Amino acid sequence: MKVGLFIPCYINQLYPQVAIATLELLEKLGVDVYYPTQQTCCGQPLGNSGYEEDSKGACLLFVENFNEYDYIVGPSGSCIYHVKKHFDILEQTPDVIKIRNNAYELCEFIVKVLGKKDLGASFPYRVGLHKSCHGLRGLHLGSCSERMDPHFSTEEDLLNSVKGLELMKLNREDECCGFGGTFSVFEEAISVKMGKDKIQDHLDNGVEVITGADHSCLMHLEGLINRNNQPLRVLHIAEILNSSI
Predict the structure, then answer these.
(1) What's the number of CA atoms in the CB half-sphere (13 Å) around residue 145?
(2) Start-end ranges of CATH 3.40.50 in the chain?
(3) How is domain 2-113 classified at the CATH fold level?
(4) Rounded CA gap, 232 and 102, in Å?
(5) Which of 89, 163, 191, 231 has its Cα between 20 and 30 A from that of 199?
(6) Is the predicted pLDDT of residue 234 greater than 80, yes or no?
(7) If you classify domain 126-241 with CATH, what class do you get?
């Protein structure tokens, strides 16, 4: 299979180590990975702000860059969800339909497409998992506490297979962190309070490292942690799954 690696713009600009870890992880798993060098934003910021019509150019460029691949894989649940759900604003050509059907968040691709859980990683720390809203309630990467479904989580499955890692139980494990894209800009005070509450949940349960599959949420939490000098590290799940400490 040919896999096109989609690196969201904020990861490209601010967290290149996450992009590198994602690439290395996929290559370790024997995936034939390609990186389209002309890729840009998927259009999510414009769409989230109500400018869907203006986002069409970015969406069409995404289709142009990725239409030759069997799968599109990215380390961001929110961006992948935007591609799968909100590319409905485009004319549903065969290329657009193919892109929407074959775009996968990294953890989902590893577990559901590759059928892997134990990736041979080691990471001897107490880890708290932040389950981002887009991944949880949009992509259905795990069960939600407000539903009576059987418990499942692709992220937990992968982390529980990491040697030495202790996955800590949180009091409110699937609560929003308050980032919400432009919500954190337009509702700053509420966003900050939600983020602080989320961080405190991790601290109360002895977490040393917060991880998750969407670095936009992690960026929000990391900013609050750094401003308040709190004893927590933040790492994308790709960095942990690629670790051999």
Answers:
(1) 9
(2) 2-113, 126-241
(3) Rossmann fold (3.40.50)
(4) 35
(5) 163
(6) yes
(7) alpha beta
